[in-house]
Amino acid sequence: GWDSNNTARAAFLFGTRLAYTVLSAGVGLDATGDPFTLGLGLGARLRTGQFYMDMDVSWRNSFAMWGYSPSLEGRLLAGFPADKSGLIAGIAVEGYLPGLSREGNGEPYATFHVEPRFFVGLKF
Fold first, then answer.
1. Which parts of the chain have pLDDT scores under 50?
2. What is the model's pLDDT at position 47?
3. Is 122 exposed, middle or buried (0-12, 13-18, 19+ CB in 10 A)?
4. Pick from 59, 54, 30: which is nearest to 43 by CA?
5. What is the pLDDT of residue 32?
6. N or C: which end of the chain has fewer CB within 10 A?
7. What does each C-alpha distance from 64 to 81, 89, 99, 106 come to in angstroms?
8. Contact between residue 55 and residue 42 where contact means Cβ atoms under 8 Å apart
9. Is residue 34 a contact partner of residue 62, using CB atoms and an 8 Å limit?
10. What pTM, to 2 d.p., does this model score?
């Protein structure tokens, strides 16, 4: 999928129909995108007919030339699957931790910082 921070990401979900573990990886598509990222999280799924909604929280690490930067990401996504594949879209909120997370220039955030994003993608 693609998110509004110019990052291409792939996520793998393992679990049951109602709860899952998510493993994700991503790479920035240009200089403004996230550097290489890895994430691990937990999620839950609400399903009503063909429509479904996923809610998950992940611990993510971004890797750049100056080191790595941990963050927390919460996602809410909705989809209309056709059999086992389909189009998904959603919103994400990434929280950057003071003293641990780093800005694009490598400096640590002084206070908790929240950045909203949106994303679209395909589910296989």
1. none
2. 82
3. exposed
4. 54
5. 62
6. C
7. 35, 27, 17, 9
8. no
9. yes
10. 0.80
Burial 78-111 (b: 16+ CB within 10 A, else e): ebeeeeeeeebebebebbbbeeebbeeeeeebee
The H or E element spanning position 3 is strand 2-3
Say which amino acid occupies 57: V
Place of tokens 């890797």: 63
Beta carbons of 60 and 9 less than 8 angstroms apart: no
pLDDT of residue 34: 65
Tell me how crowded residue 3 is: count the other CB atoms within 10 A of its CB.
23
Cα dihedral 67/117/113/38 (nearest 10): -30
From CA 20, how far away is CA 45, in angstroms rounded? 8
Max intra-chain CA distance, the chain: 47
Instruction: Please report the pLDDT score of residue 57 as a whole number.
Output: 94
119 φ, ψ (degrees, to nearest 5) = -150, 160
Give the model's pLDDT for residue 87. 78
**Is residue 96 within 8 Å of 112, Cβ to Cβ?**
yes
